[in-house]
Design goal:
Elements lengths: L3 E5 L4 H12 L3 E6 L2 H11 L7 E5 L8 H5 L4 E4 L13 H20 L4 E5 L14 E2 L13 H20 L4 E7 L1 E3 L9 H11 L5 E2 L2 E6 H13 L2 H4 L3 E4 L2 E4 H11 L11 E2 L1 H7 L4 H7 L7 E2 L2 H7 L6 H14 L6
Parallel strand pairs: 1-2, 1-4, 2-3, 4-5, 5-7, 6-14, 7-11, 8-10, 9-13
Antiparallel strand pairs: 10-12
The structure holds NADP nicotinamide-adenine-dinucleotide phosphate.
Protein name: NAD-dependent epimerase/dehydratase family protein
Family: Belongs to the NAD(P)-dependent epimerase/dehydratase family. Dihydroflavonol-4-reductase subfamily.
GO molecular function: oxidoreductase activity, acting on the CH-OH group of donors, NAD or NADP as acceptor
Length: about 350
């Protein structure tokens, strides 16, 4: 039975896909953006076939303005908005504060509006970091902040922990769960690329001449959005308090490059075939913010299992190879990467 759902962060990669799937299922969707002047027309253009079922509200994670109106009349919230930058900020609080306060603000206004189902977009960042000598993780694991982790990892961990503590203390009847995606890939809507998709673009267009000795888990944006929708629709006892990692497979960057080469041979000439020596990554990290982030990940395996999510929510994830191929095809179809 379709109702009305608030999706925060409708301009984002994941938020957009969640809206897509909800509208396709007949829901009415409220979404928040930071600037209506910048985004409202683009959103209405994207979903012009769902006229009247998409309502756009202006609300920032750092201010109370607009949140009551956005929540009014909604049956559930998918809280997706959170800062997700490419580089590392000088001050970690530029990420940690909006992620945490924004989540608590979203929870508080949902409760005030009488909404009883809240799905938070957390991250594998809240699962798989700060734990020495461990390389396989699942929904029961938590990032250990005492080991000192990068600001984005901290922001997602603190946001999820705070949300769970807040629900336990203030809204114990609320049906709260988190979706914890690993790196998200898949079809794009426009050239406003998320940090993870940017990596595939760089593999395709020759801007990574050699593959760093680094790996990531892959999940498809369509599977991430489906997890949100299923978590909104599932019986309360299946999802209350749950954590749902979405993760299909761990891949080394070299394997991702090989997948691009095999599935889109027209890019073979530009796709890296050799591994970048670790010392070079460390050297480049002195000048390039994205290399700085990679430096700490050299040789690490962080294999997060999504099996629990597949089992509880009842569907199977798209294979990582298919996801990479669909990312490539979509980047080409939108003219973002040219052969
Ligand atoms: P994205 O495309 O950058 O979207 C982020 C969204 O958050 C945008 O709509 C952005 O709005 C909004 N936002 C950021 N700061 C805000 C603020 N202060 N007030 C209000 N809105 C704000 O990133 P994404 O990949 O879709 O990520 C969405 C969520 O998934 C985030 O919570 C992220 O941590 C999580 N996640 C992403 C990945 C991934 O690989 N993509 C993996 C795991 C978890 P503006 O348009 O105004 O900037």
């Amino acid at each position: 039975m379709a109702g009305t759902v608030l999706v925060t962060g409708g301009t984002g990669y994941i938020g957009g896909e969640v809206i897509d799937q909800l509208l396709a299922k007949g829901y009415t969707v409220h979404t928040t953006v930071r600037s209506k002047a910048k985004s409202e027309e683009r959103l209405h253009q994207r979903w012009k076939d769902a006229t009247g079922r998409l309502k756009v509200f202006e609300a920032d994670l750092m201010s109370d303005d607009g949140w009551a109106a956005a929540n009014a009349g909604c049956d559930a919230v998918a809280h997706v908005a959170s800062p997700f930058p490419m580089g590392v900020p000088k001050d970690k609080n530029d990420l940690v504060i909006p992620a945490m306060e924004g989540t608590l603000r979203a929870l508080k206004f949902a409760q005030q509006a009488g909404i009883n189902r809240f799905v938070q977009t957390s991250s594998a960042a809240a699962i798989a970091y700060g734990q020495k000598n461990k390389d396989h993780f699942d929904y029961t694991d938590w990032t250990n902040l005492t080991e000192g982790v990068p600001p984005y990892i901290e922001s997602k961990t603190v946001a999820e922990r705070s949300a769970r503590d807040w629900v336990a203390a203030n809204a114990p009847d609320m049906i709260f769960c988190s979706i914890n995606p690993v790196a998200v890939f898949g079809p794009v809507y426009d050239d406003d690329l998320s940090t993870s998709v940017e990596m595939v673009k760089k593999i395709m267009d020759g801007s990574i001449p050699m593959a760093p000795n680094m790996g990531i888990c892959v999940t498809d944006v369509r599977d991430v959005a489906e997890a949100h929708v299923r978590a909104i629709e599932a019986p309360a006892d299946k999802v209350r308090g749950e954590r749902f990692p979405t993760s299909q497979k761990f891949m080394w960057i070299e394997e991702m490059a090989e997948t691009v080469r095999q599935r889109a041979p027209e890019f073979s000439a530009k796709v890296p075939t050799r591994r970048m020596p670790d010392f070079l990554v460390k050297l480049l990290a002195l000048f390039m913010p994205e290399m700085k982030q990679i430096k700490g990940e050299l040789g690490n395996v962080r294999d997060v299992s999504g099996k629990h999510t597949e089992d509880v929510l009842g569907y199977r994830f798209i294979t990582a190879e298919q996801t990479i191929e669909d990312t490539v095809r979509s980047l080409v179809a939108h003219g973002i990467v040219k052969v």
